Amino acid sequence: MCQTTLHEFLHNLPKCEHHVHLEGCLTPQLIFQLAQKNNTPLPDPATNPAYESIEALTSRYHHFTSLDDFLAFYFQGMSVLIHESDFEDLAWNYFVKASKDGIHHAEVFFDPQVHMDRGVEYTAVVNGFVNGCKRAERELGLSTRLILCFVRHLPVSSARGVYEEALKKGDFEVDADRVHGIGWSSTEVGPPKDMFRELYASAKAKGIPLTAHAGEEGDPSYISTALELGATRIDHGIRLVEDTQLMKRIAEEGILLTVCPLSNVRLRCVESLDQVPIRTFLDNNVKFSINSDDPAYFGGYILDNYCAVQEAFGLSIRDWRRIAEDSVKCSWIGEARKVELLGRIEECVMRYSK
Ligand code: ADE
Ligand code: ZN
């Protein structure tokens, strides 16, 4: 439990989440439950003892050695999702938790290629997640955006397949209000940095907002490549601090980094939370939001991440106001919603500044 004096303020501060993988919200409990319901066998505990029990799996999550070590569990975990309702329930459960944590706007990732690769229909995945988003908007008053991620461990042809299917179905049409942007994720170092050059050029020409996981494990050249390909936001981006010129450019252009502190510690991108470059970003006017990434795997949702940052850096209400305001201003939402959310932040800051 967070011990900081700002805990109540951080809870009530209106937050935006820009970096959470819906499949990363699958808890060990839900993995075992859905495996039984959907008759999708989990790995044999004789060869992989992590799958002996919910407790064993939870405990294994405390010992990830790298991004790729985690991804093996993440892709295995999502194999229990079969029906449209599984995807909808997963999204809905996340939004309920997000709302309780004080999130007012959430931009959420999903990995359709991985589901299609194991035989699940594109429409089951997308309809399920879209339904979850719409229900959150109706019943919780959240605004939501759904971001389709291409994955870097599968061939480009697979990403092209899902992209073409989404285009054919009209899912990227602004009026359809279904899928609002494209990102890339999964393994960083290894595959060609610019593997999605052609697809990003096509999406950019259509005006689809683009983001990309870069600078998590990879050096700053992964970030500059993502920008060159058309990303207007960078997911993680913590290794930006190694290139001061690029950091200056990102600050000047107002590009948002979606930082995930607890994830960075669990995946050993940093040794401890105080090594996440929060202070450096604040000092260099780099805009960033704070996010949970894969909360079911990394031991914390957004508020846990806010609290962990507060415990490590002892930020002021003024610092938090700036983080919250930048999060709103860089969200992929219209002006009217931004004004509404900025007003709520102002109200909260006034209440706790007395
Ligand atoms: N997919 C889910 N979580 C991820 C992460 N932290 N980095 C890259 N791809 C991911
Ligand atoms: Zn991520």
Automatic annotation (TrEMBL):
The record marks 236 as: Important for catalytic activity. Keywords: Cytoplasm, Hydrolase, Metal-binding, Nucleotide metabolism, Nucleus, Zinc. One of its GO terms (molecular function) is zinc ion binding. Zn(2+) binds at residues 19, 21, 213, 293. Residues 14-347 form the Adenosine deaminase domain. Signal peptide: none annotated. The active site is at residue 216. Catalyzes the hydrolytic deamination of adenine to hypoxanthine. Plays an important role in the purine salvage pathway and in nitrogen catabolism. This is Adenine deaminase. It comes from Aspergillus sclerotialis. The gene is AAH1.
